[in-house]
Design goal:
237 residues, mainly alpha, two-stranded antiparallel ribbon
Length: 237
């Protein structure tokens, strides 16, 4: 890796936590992979000590596992964690959707619609990285519009642990079609300010579609990136 984004040496390891977390969230560091400490040192222009301290923080969050004599690996999610974490995520999304509907002004609705249009453009162009980015931004924007900082913090904590199953793995065609249709409906319900229906849809989106994707991921049947297996055939009209 080429040196980039060199970190100012004030609370150095804390300054490294956010970019390292983002690498996990974006799928640049994937579940089960060993964290390449030497490459990260070169990328951020730091020694191994602050890198390792930052990795310890991420391990405490559940995003990494630190193994004796092997270093850090990106955590894999298990069936037990799916059963534990996804109902929490579903409840957070439900509340965020209800609050967002009640608080959203026309500019907020336009922001969600714009992100959705960009996500669909990436989907049709088979731009996997772009699709992932806008998909995640849509969900984060619901929390932003909801205007509850504690709710948003809890969401980010859970998301760090389950992101690989949500925004990084390849969907089965039926999951993909359902996910796209549900996103279309989210936009419609927000525009209609139907708080109860949007809240219920966001909860169902997590407990149904997303849990199905996560279980496939754990079973090893669809490991890959969160993009359509056959994107053009699966695109909605």
């Amino acid at each position: 890796m080429k040196p980039e984004n060199r970190i100012v040496r004030h609370s150095l390891h804390q300054s490294l936590v956010a970019p390292l977390r983002e690498m996990i969230m974006q799928g640049e560091l994937r579940p089960g992979e060993k964290v390449p400490e030497e490459q990260l040192c070169e990328r951020f222009g730091v020694s191994r000590t602050p890198i390792r301290e930052a990795l310890k923080v991420l391990a405490a969050e559940g995003a990494l596992e630190i193994l004796p004599h092997r270093g850090a690996i990106v955590a894999r999610i298990t069936e037990e964690q799916i059963a534990e974490l996804f109902p929490i995520m579903a409840s957070l999304e439900r509340l965020a959707g209800a609050l967002a509907c009640r608080r959203a002004d026309e500019a907020d609705v336009a922001r969600i619609k714009g992100l959705h249009e960009q996500m669909m453009a990436c989907y049709r162009a088979e731009d996997e990285r772009g699709y992932l980015r806008f998909n995640r931004l849509i969900h984060e924007t619901f929390f932003d519009i909801a205007g509850n900082a504690t709710l948003a913090t809890l969401y980010q904590q859970i998301l760090t642990r389950i992101n690989a199953c949500r925004f990084v793995v390849r969907k089965k065609p039926e999951h993909w079609r359902t996910a796209v249709a549900e996103h279309e409906e989210m936009v419609r319900l927000l525009e209609a300010r139907d708080a109860d229906a949007l809240a219920a849809l966001l909860e169902r989106h997590v407990t149904g579609t997303t849990v199905g994707i996560a279980r496939d991921f754990v079973a090893g049947t669809t490991i890959g990136s969160d993009a359509p297996t056959e994107p053009r055939a699966a695109a909605v009209a």
